[in-house]
């Protein structure tokens, strides 16, 4: 039986100028369509639209069962922290994935 260990997250304090540069780079990357890995990829269970990331880091969406080519649609975050499917308008909750160690 494997013992379960939880790692404590260490707090790293960054100097404000460096923090501003990191935030700027993240903002530019997001505007270019890159996935920042700051959340789980989304999947609409209602219509089958899902997100994926190309080897280049570009975030794409496609319908399950279709060819993997970008539809150009993007899930929008709502005020409650969930996401709205751009294809069918359903609310999509972020899923928490459990690691199997």
Protein model, in words:
This protein is α+β, with helices and mostly antiparallel strands and 101 residues long. It has a domain at 39-101. The chain is 16% helix and 16% strand. It contains one helix and five strands; from the N terminus they run αβββββ. The chain has one helix spanning 16-31; strands at residues 49-53, 59-63, 76-77, 83-84, 91-92. The strands form two sheets. A three-stranded antiparallel beta sheet has the order 3-4-5, with no helix packed on it. The termini are close together. The relative contact order is 0.16. Residues 97-101 have low confidence and may be disordered.
Provide a quick synopsis of the model.
The chain has 101 residues and is α+β, with helices and mostly antiparallel strands. It has a domain at 39-101. It is 16% helix and 16% strand.
């Amino acid at each position: 039986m494997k013992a379960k260990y939880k790692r404590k997250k260490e707090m790293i304090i960054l100097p404000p100028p460096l923090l501003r540069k990191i935030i700027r780079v993240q903002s530019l990357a997001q505007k270019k369509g890159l996935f920042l890995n700051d959340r789980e990829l989304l999947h609409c269970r209602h219509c089958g639209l899902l997100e994926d990331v190309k080897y280049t880091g570009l975030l794409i969406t496609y319908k399950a069962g279709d060819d993997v080519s970008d539809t150009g649609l993007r899930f929008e975050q709502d005020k409650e922290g969930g996401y709205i499917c751009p294809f069918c308008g359903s609310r999509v909750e972020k899923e928490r994935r459990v690691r199997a160690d």
